[in-house]
Amino acid sequence: FLTLGIETSCDETSAAVVLNGREVLSNVIYSQIDIHKRFGGVVPEVASRKHVEIISLIVEEAIKEAGIKFSDIDLIAPTYGPGLVGALLVGLSYAKGLSLSLKKPLIGVNHIEGHISANYIQHKYLEPPFLCLVVSGGHSHLVYIEDYDTYEIIGKTRDDAAGEAFDKIARALGLGYPGGPLIDKIARQGNEDAIDFPRAYLEEESFDFSFSGLKSAVLNYLNKMSMQGIEIKKEDVAASFQKSVVEVLANKTIRAAKLKKINKVALAGGVAANSRLRDELSLLCKKYGFEFYYPSIELCTDNAAMIAASGYYAYKKGRVSSLSINAYPNLKIGEKL
Ligand code: ATP
Ligand code: MG
Ligand code: FE
């Protein structure tokens, strides 16, 4: 059973062919990072236009690389939310056209559920139920995956997403965009106990996150140092900031797994590429006897293979979309629209 995944929710144009929801035959990713870099973030209008220019090329490439024909496709799975509405519409419209002309079913995929599903590709025997910490550029969630296509949100961010915090701090440190990988890199040369930034655990029983307080604390620290003419060590700031984020994320994840009495813990989303976060969770999971799963770096950030995997399982659960399906920029995890 061949699923064609199509991803255009933000600044990656991607198409992939996935066999039986797990085996990647092709996963073509065109990143617009170099275009948006000079603006310090993604410019929605520019992103949409670039998707329009390149979408058919990327899909054709994915078909070719998989060694199949268009007519071999059994299911077409585009991302339909959350994301930038203009960007989403490009992939979704293209998929609708394909579904109509090939007479093959269409299934709209939730981008964040896609991130979670990257784990199915990486770990061929991973099956629900499991707990997943999803941390990406725009989202931070603790999710209980009860079954394929059945999600329960345990906690979420009340303000900034984890990736957003990484990107903003990197910008303040003058590191460039996107900031996550750059902070990850220089933090290795820093002392993570150099500066005592706050940990936002919120109320005792809460599984929610908040990163805006930490962000302000780091920015205040940088201002204070610059006003006093004290030279800062970027590596130490990056490492101390990263430790504060990672500690809270990892501890809440473990606590949620205990609450759900589940011994399988997974990581997903762009920030799942963070080496410090992987190490911390891997250590804690070992300590508590949990199995720990995370996708390869390429499957952590935006790609269409994860979208195809998610679409495949939703379809197998009996879901299908009509040709009138719309794009939903604020689509929630588990929401079926
Ligand atoms: P969303 O999935 O929420 O719609 P997005 O698709 O833009 O947002 P992703 O592609 O999932 O986000 O992830 C990109 C984010 O991951 C960026 O914020 C980036 O800084 C962050 N990121 C990537 N690598 C790392 C890393 N090694 N450490 C920390 N953050 C990272
Ligand atoms: Mg991106
Ligand atoms: Fe994403």
UniProtKB/TrEMBL annotation:
* Enzyme class, first EC level, given as a word: transferase
**What EC number(s) is this enzyme filed under?**
2.3.1.234
Please indicate which superkingdom the organism of origin belongs to: Bacteria
Where substrate is bound, by residue? V134, V135, S136, G137, G138, D167, G180, D184, N274
Binding sites annotated in the UniProt record for Fe cation: H111, H115, D302
One GO-annotated biological process of the protein: tRNA threonylcarbamoyladenosine modification
Q: Which UniProt keywords apply?
A: Acyltransferase, Cytoplasm, Iron, Metal-binding, Transferase, tRNA processing
Q: Which SUPFAM superfamilies match?
A: Actin-like ATPase domain
Is Glycosyltransferase among the key words of this record?
no
> Which cofactors?
Fe(2+)
The record's listing under PANTHER family reads: TRNA N6-ADENOSINE THREONYLCARBAMOYLTRANSFERASE, TRNA N6-ADENOSINE THREONYLCARBAMOYLTRANSFERASE, MITOCHONDRIAL
Name the UniProt record assigns to this protein = tRNA N6-adenosine threonylcarbamoyltransferase
State the species of origin: Caloramator mitchellensis
Upper lineage? Bacteria, Bacillati, Bacillota, Clostridia, Eubacteriales
